[in-house]
Write a structure and sequence with these properties.
Blueprint: E1 12-15, E2 21-26, E3 32-39, H1 53-60, H2 70-80, E4 83-88, E5 93-100, H3 104-116, H4 122-140, H5 143-155, H6 170-175, H7 178-188, E6 194-200, H8 204-215, H9 226-229, E7 239-244, E8 251-258, H10 267-278, H11 280-293, E9 299-305, E10 312-319, H12 324-341, H13 345-362, H14 366-378, H15 385-395, H16 398-408, E11 415-420
Parallel strand pairs: 2-6, 7-11
Antiparallel strand pairs: 1-2, 3-5, 3-6, 4-5, 8-10, 8-11, 9-10
Length: about 425
């Protein structure tokens, strides 16, 4: 398969009989390997009353399984020189082990234990619960977190998972039990909801054999797709809300609105617009104008979240409270100028070069390659995605980028949340 700028990413896809998908990329020049299980069991699977259960369940996976205690797991990983990470988002739980290729088989066995056979020890849950409750108190005192939390509460209806942060709240975390976590894991963790990614110096036959041996007998369950479980959400009305926090010296701002899902035909044009507005040249137009030229912000950038269901376009800024009104005016002016005029010819050209240059750099590491392979599988982009990607980017026109941005970023629906000292 031809790839971006001669990259070494040539993924192969195998589906086991129980529905688990194996994505493999052989990198013989790299003696390490990344083994990653992506389980579609993130916070999107929670009910309103289960807020935080997905996060607790994911974080408890490494606290002990039927065959490996927490201490034994730590000791074995340390002996292998391996690193273990567990990340829980709205759509996914990502469990990753990075190790030397000689330890690949054992790493896969450990990974299967974590996702298939966790025991959720009561004493470890009590310890984790205390940690999370402390984190929640710290978040209540963090202006960046409070701005995003407030923005989500305004932008998405209360019935939508994106309305809330994934960590949970004090009431639901305090009430969570081992039975709650076990029930959530039983309901949503299954082979047909899991993708196993292997990147590094492991041959395809060895990867398939390890997947079959460790996960081939994981019984399948009928679980509906994540996107079908997300409620519909209308665009919110334009609103600005300030959260007064005493003792703070900085105001943090989040401005944005729900937009599109990753599978939308408009995704690439809107992503290109976001790259120019808030990413390119180190924080894009917003960073260049609001931060560098005008000195009105400590940071200013934007991001586009494309996932299952309607994601969001967000602008984030950290501002001296004395400059808040001027910064908001400047942000509004830059966004209006882009909606009126679109990218300049120079921005269009530089945007293409920037995007086509950044992907090969990401593919230089096993972790970066695994992330790209994850996106390819999760959003059905096709194994020829990297072959098609340069033409997708080059085919975007200034007119198309401008029209798509106007379609999805409507100033009449922008929600603004500010957290900082009282004014």
């Amino acid at each position: 398969m031809a790839t971006v700028t001669g990259s070494a990413l040539r993924p192969e896809r195998i589906e086991l009989s129980n529905g688990l998908v194996l994505l493999h990329n052989h990198v013989p020049s790299n003696a390490s390997v990344v083994v990653r299980a992506l389980v579609r069991a993130g916070a999107s699977r929670e009910t309103h009353d289960e807020h935080g259960i997905a996060s607790l369940t994911g974080r408890m996976l490494r606290q002990g399984t039927r065959n490996i205690s927490k201490s034994a797991l730590a000791e074995e990983l340390d002996g292998m020189g391996a690193g273990l990470s567990v990340d829980v988002g709205y759509a996914l739980v990502a469990v990753s082990i990075k190790c030397l290729s000689g330890d690949f088989l054992r790493a896969t066995q450990i990974l299967s234990e974590l996702v298939c056979k966790p025991t959720f020890p009561a004493e470890e849950l009590d310890r984790l619960r205390g940690q999370v409750l402390t984190e929640l108190k710290e978040m209540d005192d963090n202006t960046r977190v409070m701005a995003e939390r407030t923005w989500r509460e305004l932008a998405f209806p209360s019935t939508h998972p994106y309305h809330r942060l994934t960590v949970g709240n004090a009431a639901t975390v305090s009430a969570a039990t081992r039975d709650n976590l076990s029930a959530f894991q039983t309901a949503w963790y299954g082979p047909n909801q899991t993708t196993l990614i292997v990147v590094g110096d492991v041959a395809l036959d060895d990867a398939v054999a390890a997947a079959e041996a460790s996960l081939g007998d994981w019984p399948g369950v009928r679980i509906e797709r994540v996107e079908s479980t997300l409620p519909a959400s209308d665009l919110p009305p334009k609103e600005l809300r300030e959260v007064a926090m005493t003792g703070k010296t900085q105001a943090d701002v989040v401005i944005g609105l729900p937009t599109l899902d990753r599978g939308s035909a408009d995704y690439y044009a809107l992503s290109f617009a976001n790259h120019i507005l808030g990413r390119m040249y180190f924080m894009g137009r917003f960073g260049e104008k609001v931060r560098d030229e005008q000195g009105l912000a400590y940071y200013a950038y934007s991001e586009l979240h494309g996932s299952y269901g309607r994601g969001a376009w967000l602008l984030r800024a950290g501002v001296n409270p004395r400059n808040l009104d001027k910064a908001l005016t400047s942000i509004d002016a830059e966004l209006k100028r882009f909606l009126d005029e679109g990218p300049t010819p120079e921005e269009q050209s530089d945007g293409v070069s920037s995007l086509l240059g950044s992907l090969p750099r990401q593919l230089e590491t096993n972790e970066g390659a695994a992330a790209v392979m994850s996106e390819i599988e999760l959003y059905d982009l096709g194994l020829d995605y990297l072959e098609r990607y340069p033409d997708i980017v080059r085919s975007l026109t200034r007119e198309q980028v401008t029209e798509v941005t106007r379609r999805w970023i409507d100033p009449q629906h922008l929600v603004s949340a500010i957290a900082g000292p009282p004014r």
